[in-house]
Amino acid sequence: MFKVRANLRSEIARDYLNYLWWVVEPILFMGVYYIVFGILLKQGTDNFIPFLLIGLTAWQWFANALTHSSTSIFNAQGIMRHIKINKIFFPLVTVFQDTIKNLIVFSLLLLFCVLYGLPVTIFWCFLPLLLIIQCLLVIGTCVLFSGLVPFFPDLRFMLNSGLFLLMCLSGVFFDIDRTFIPQHSVYVYLNPMAGLLKNYRLILLDGQPPDWGYLVLVGFGSLLLVICASWLVNRFNHLYLRAIQ
Amino acid sequence: MSAPIISLREVEFLYRIRNGLFRHFEHQALRAVSFDIYRGETVGLIGRNGSGKSTLLRLIAGIVRPDSGQITMAPDVSVTLLTLHAGFDPELPGRDNVVLSGMLLGLPYRTILAKLDKVVAFAELEAFIGEPLKTYSDGMRARLGFALALELVPDVFLVDEVLGVGDAAFMRKAKNAMRCKLTSEQTVVYVSHDLQSVVELCDRVIWVENGLTRIAGKASEVVEAYLAAILEEENLKCERLQIEAEAKNKWVKARSETQIPFVKSFKQDIDQVNVNVSPENVGLVVIHGHGLERAEDCLFSLASLPAPQDMGILVVACFGSPNEAREVYSWAKTGWPGGAVLVSGDQVGETVLGAPPGGKCRCVVLDLGPQSTEIQARNAAGRYLCGIPGLLWAWFLASEMTVVPGAPFAFLQHMSSRPYSVLGCCVEDHLREEMLKCAGGCTLSQGTMRTCYVGEGVPRDQAVEQGQYALDSVYGGCMAVPLELFRTIGLFDEGYSPAHADLDFCQRAVQVGCTLEYCFSSRVQGHERLPLGTSSPALVQEEMLVSELRSALRYARKYHPDGLFWLRFQRGLRQIPLLVVRGQWKLARKLWHELRRA
Questions:
Q1: CA separation for the pair B326, B342 (Å, rounded)
Q2: Residues of A whose CB is below 8 A from B92
Q3: Which of A169, B2, B192, B347 has its CA 20 to 30 A from that of A132?
């Protein structure tokens, strides 16, 4: 954890606006999407701004963590060459780093929801659970990718397009249930991010309980992914340095 | 002595670095390294750069695993590879970096905090410790890293060349501190190029070279042996450079004093050259084979010859494509003291004709044998043997022959003391042995043996029956003749079919008073020089047969108007003897036409 803290502090030290960027960057990002989808494309549903903000916050957590951590082992040659270390350390540091940043943004989001006048219901208690499930999903995906990139460096280039496609399919800036025909949306929800976003919105936007069955599935699936990915990275632990050299 | 704390057995390590989709660069860093490390001792590892020392340390530290072999450690042994500033982040203050790096190196958080002041004090960085690392100089960073390293207390400490840090004062301090640490009960593996410190600090030293343990033993002894080896190598290198430089200087100087024009067609300018060529003093370079890389070899070989100033004119003769000969020639005309002329293969005899058999011509045979791949060799096989008549001629004339060792003719030297001389070339190593056997064997001692050649499609037994000796391989040739017979030039290579050089050679031989027995047979099958655009193999064979025969007859007629010429023509396994008696050219033509129809 000290490494996480140190990295965060290092990141702060690098830019002049320091901590402010963690908040300003997502806001800028959301602004862009709001202008494009909310104003220009007139896609706006009711409460489009909170709808978009919730989607983007959760999505950015996933996407940033994955982008940053995918090359974490790949770029850690300097340390790996000199220190015997379990390579899972590198993606985990990055994931936690992004998670902490995201938690700050998330609390700002909650504040915004309250100020916007959305009802604060009892179901908000389930939000931490939702965050934990997403955290598991993020860890599993990040560890898996960081473990694969050293062997297939070309994956790095595919990752961005992959993430963009996934974003479009996760309903970040539109409502899946309204946009897609029902036959398609069944498949769209196979993407756990789509389901998670929907559940965030159910709680925050509509003041309804989450879809328990779906969450349990995603939770277990993510746990399994974490276990498999960790096993994989452990299994190849001694091969990474060679693969990268 | 107690059980080793770490023991390496037959450890191998291969670096495999990918530099393309399917391409790899491989480097065998370690091959079969074995040694033990005992508790409390300081073991030094020495060796040149790239000899595998650092790889060994990484293997011991467990950072990488060996490809094969075993590294066993006593239970609960912690091993740390000392690295200065591992995991340092330039944005963070020095203090955080110490904590971060310390944790990465295996110290608990609290321990580091407790030792932080001591580290900072040792590094003498109190004023800077709160500032980001990017404001530090390299020396300051190294000092901080070193101070931290001193606080590490693993069971086995691996130290890789870290003593040269900071300014002079700090370096002394660092060395002393490290010395204290190394001479204590700590188990240490110490890698350094500073041999003095190795002798001082280490109980035992292991010298690693090319991924192998060269010597292991008492520190002073191993270091001494290592130093001696390095010194010797340096001396050799110096000596060689000096010799080369001297030779080159001489040549260049001599070259500025003499100049001989490039004779493109030797025959035309023979008078002009004759003036300059002194038979006693001719250098003959036989370039044998194809390819420009041969020319490079040739140049290299020339450069390594002793006393080049005595070599007279350099005759650059080529039997293959003229390019490589040109290359050598263009060098030789400036680099060779007596200047050079360029002639083609069948003019070699002519060039040194002035020299009587057994005269005083000095001959340099540069072995430019088959260094090509097998395919190239296979393609060249037909032409390969072209050089042999020239070579024989050189041999014949030379009173003194320098053979620059290398592939096919290396054994010439070996054979020259025997009653039989063997000339030959072969592409494959195992054939060379066969040739040697063939030369020393009794089969050839009968005196009836004229030509020995590797016949394609001629079974060995049959070849022996026919008075030929055959080797089993297709790719290569061999001639084995009694020395006596050889002196009268009674041998030929059937693979060399156009016969220009052969016949030319015969003529020269006759002119210098040799009696000539010429056994010629043409082997078409498998010959690589097929005319382009011909479809039927049979037709191709036929045409080549005819053209070769025509050529043979033409030359025989030209050079042997009065001589007896016996041609044995071999077609497949069928032999058609052609007897061309003095003046009987009509008969010869008739036979040829018959053959053509057949």
A1: 7
A2: 6, 9-10, 13
A3: A169
Torsion of CA B144, B148, B150, B154, to 10 degrees: -150
DSSP code for A37: I
Q: Is A75 exposed, middle or buried (0-12, 13-18, 19+ CB in 10 A)?
A: middle
**Residue owning tokens 């020319």:** B295
Do A238 and B15 count as a contact with CB atoms less than 8 A apart?
Answer: no
> Is the CB of B99 less than 8 angstroms away from the CB of A2?
yes
At CB < 8 Å, which residues of chain B contact A? 15-17, 58, 61-65, 79, 81, 83, 86-87, 89, 91-92, 96, 99-100, 103-105, 109, 132
Query: How far does the CA of residue B105 sit from the closest CA of chain A (Å)?
Result: 7
Angle, helices B292-303/B322-335, rounded to nearest 10 degrees:
30
Compute how many other C-beta atoms are within 10 angstroms of the C-beta atom of residue A199.
Answer: 25
Strand-pairing partners, residue B213, are B208
Please answer whether residues B316 and B364 qualify as being in contact, where contact means their C-beta atoms are separated by less than 8 angstroms: no
Are B63 and A6 in contact (CB < 8 Å)? Answer: no
> What's the 3-state SS for B25-81?
EEEEEEEEEEEEECCCCEEEEECCCCCCHHHHHHHHHCCCCCCEEEEEECCCCCEEE
**Alpha helix locations (H) across chain A?**
2-14, 20-33, 48-70, 77-80, 89-116, 127-148, 155-169, 176-179, 182-188, 192-204, 212-235, 240-244
B283-287, B322-326, B350-354, B459-463: which range is least confident on average? B350-354
Domains recognised in chain B with CATH numbers: 6-225 (3.40.50.300), 258-407 (3.40.50)
- Annotated domain spans of chain A: 2-244
Angle of CA points B41, B143, B150, to nearest 5°: 30
**Residue B16 phi, psi dihedral angles, 5° rounding:** -130, 105
Q: Tell me: the pLDDT tens digits for B434-484?
A: 444 433 322 222 222 223 333 333 443 444 444 433 332 222 233 333 333
Residue pair B5/B40 in contact by the 8 Å Cβ criterion: no
d(CA A79, nearest CA chain B) in Å: 6
Q: Do A238 and B83 touch (CB under 8 A)?
A: no
Report the alpha-carbon distance of residue A127 to residue B258 in Å, rounded. Answer: 98
Quick count: other Cβ atoms within 10 Å of Cβ B189? 27
Contact A80 B63 (CB under 8 A): yes
What is the complex's ipTM, to 2 decimals? 0.74
3-state secondary structure of B365: strand
Q: Pairing mode, if any, of strands B187-191 and B42-46? A: parallel
Tell me the β-bridge partners of A216.
Answer: none
Instruction: In whole angstroms, give the CA distance from residue A36 to residue A40.
Output: 5
Please provide the distance, in angstroms rounded to a whole number, between the alpha carbons at the two ends of chain B: 89
**Any CB–CB contact under 8 A between A85 and chain B?**
yes
No. of H helices and E strands in chain B?
A: 20, 18
Secondary structure letter of residue B426 according to DSSP: E
Question: What DSSP designation does B141 have?
Answer: H
Contact yes or no for B89/A7 (Cβ under 8 A): yes
Q: Determine contact: A3 vs chain B, CB below 8 A.
A: yes
Interchain contact, B61 vs A84, CB within 8 Å:
yes
Q: Is-above-0.80 flag for pTM? A: no
3-state secondary structure B163-199: CCCCCHHHHHHHHHHHHHHHHCCCEEEEECCCHHHHH
More reliable by pLDDT, B423 or A236: A236
Sheet holding B24-37, edge to edge: B24-37, B6-18, B68-73
Read off the tokens for B186: 């700590």
Mean pLDDT of B35-58: 82
For B342, phi then psi, to 5°, come to -115, 125
The amino acid present at B425, given as its one-letter code, is: C
Q: Is the dihedral of CA A101, A107, A111, A114 positive or negative?
A: positive
CB contact under 8 A, A6 and B16: no
